[in-house]
Structure formats: C-alpha cells, structure tokens
Specification:
It contains 9 helices and 6 strands. The chain is α/β, with parallel strands linked by helices. The chain has a single domain, classed as Rossmann fold (3-Layer(aba) Sandwich). It has a 4-stranded parallel beta sheet with strand order 2-1-3-4, sandwiched between helices. The protein has a two-stranded antiparallel sheet with strand order 5-6. The structure holds zinc ion.
Length: 239
C-alpha cells in the first residue's frame, strides 16, 4: 500500500500493516549515461516490488534529495547537508511513530546518505522505533558480484539495474569506465574530480538489462526474507 495514493479513511482502516518502508536516494549526477534520479528510482522500484508481493507494508513517499557533498562538483547535483537530512529523517520517522507505526525500514539507494541515516536511526530508536536500514548495493554485494563483475557509482551494477527499471532513461552509447580509485579516505574539495571522474566509478560499459533484472530479483528476495525476521522481532542470529 502506498501512502501517497491512500485516503485518510483508508489509513484509519488499515489492518495487518507490519511496518513502513521509506525509500530514500539523491538527486545527483550519475555519469553521462544514467539519470539524476538513479539513487531514488532504484529503492523505489525495490519497495514497489516488495509491496506487490506482500500486503503488510506501507510504502511512504520517497525522499528524492540526499547528501551528495562529494558529487556537488558536477552540474545538476543538489546537495542536502547530512545535518539537515538527519533532522528531516528523524521528523519523518517520528511522524510514523506518532501514528503507531514503529517498524521503520529506511530503503536507501545512496552511499552519501549513510552518516545521516545512521544518526537518525539512533535518535528514532531512542524514541521507541525499531529501525531497519537497507543499503541494497552494499548489503548484498557478494551476491551481486556473482551477477556483475564490477561495482560503482553509475557503474556496472547500478547501470544494469537502471536498464532493468527503464532502459529509455539510460544512454549506453555514453557509458564509460573509470579506473581511478582513492588511496584512502581522503577528504578534499578536489577529490571528486578524479575519483568520481565524469561523475561515475567502476565500469558501466559492462551493464546489461538482464544483469539488472537478476540483481533486482535477488535483492527483492533477500529483503523479503530479512523483513520476515525483522517483523517477527528476530534481530540476531548465530553465524
Ligand atoms: Zn547511485
């Protein structure tokens, strides 16, 4: 069920909802070939697919802007500071808590959001929420690397998934490979220029729609299993 499509009477009469999923991404440059919305279109698609498989999820409207400091150098990128994003997330989460929804799943599609999401999750947990954070490209990277040979921002994995969602939004004739990797965790305003050369990392030229469909199916299945445990209150397991 999507909150953006529901009426107040439908909200009041909701039954058997186990939790809310809040998709979040960014509006930022994704190479010359992928759309600015890549990082929110993917978690939105994952959330939509989960909602079509099960009726116990409330899907919140997507947060389309995120913390994009390291891509702020590239035209069209809109950066929200981590401080502002943290506060925004806490207030959105608190809104769901107010209406007695305490299982809050943050479905993230963008690495730059991670500091804000983790701090917001701690604040929400202190208010009584049970927050599950999902970073699809990180949490299942081992399995994804059995489908794609490389990873990266607008790289093979992300571009493949975008092709599977809507190949009219991707221009593969402009896809590139970026061989530059950082020597370590260096923070300087100049670093994006090289490490994120052309606003991408990895090798987008290897992306295909088929790989993207496989990654999406894998991630949706894995998250489905995770949600079953999380909703049952199972937060740990033995190795
Ligand atoms: Zn991205």
């Amino acid at each position: 069920m999507h909150l953006k499509h529901m009426t107040m009477s439908q909200f009041n009469n909701m039954e058997n909802i186990n939790g809310v999923i809040i998709p979040i991404g960014s509006t930022e440059a994704h190479g010359p070939h992928c759309p600015y919305g890549t990082d929110f279109l993917i978690p939105e698609e994952i959330s939509n697919r989960l909602a079509s498989l099960r009726s116990d999820l409330l899907i919140a409207p997507t947060i389309n802007y995120g913390a994009s400091w390291n891509l702020g150098f590239f035209p069209g990128t809109i950066n929200i500071s981590s401080e502002t994003l943290t506060k925004y997330l806490v207030e959105i989460g608190s809104g769901f808590l107010k209406w007695s929804i305490d299982n809050i799943v943050i479905m993230n599609g963008h690495g730059g959001n991670n500091p804000a999401i983790r701090i917001a999750a701690q604040h929400l947990a202190d208010k009584g929420a049970k927050v599950l954070v999902i970073d699809w490209w990180l949490d299942y990277q081992e399995e994804i690397l059995e489908i794609c040979t490389t990873k990266g921002h607008a790289g093979e994995d992300e571009t493949s998934v975008m092709l599977a969602i809507d190949d009219t939004l991707v221009d593969m004739s402009l896809s590139l490979s970026n061989p530059n990797i950082p020597i370590g965790k260096v923070y300087t305003s100049k670093i994006s220029n090289k490490v994120l050369e052309n606003a991408m990392t990895g090798d987008a030229t290897k992306a295909t729609r088929e790989k993207g469909e496989k990654v999406l199916s894998l991630v949706v299945a894995k998250i489905g299993e995770l949600l079953d445990k999380y909703f049952a209150g199972i937060y740990t397991e033995k190795k």
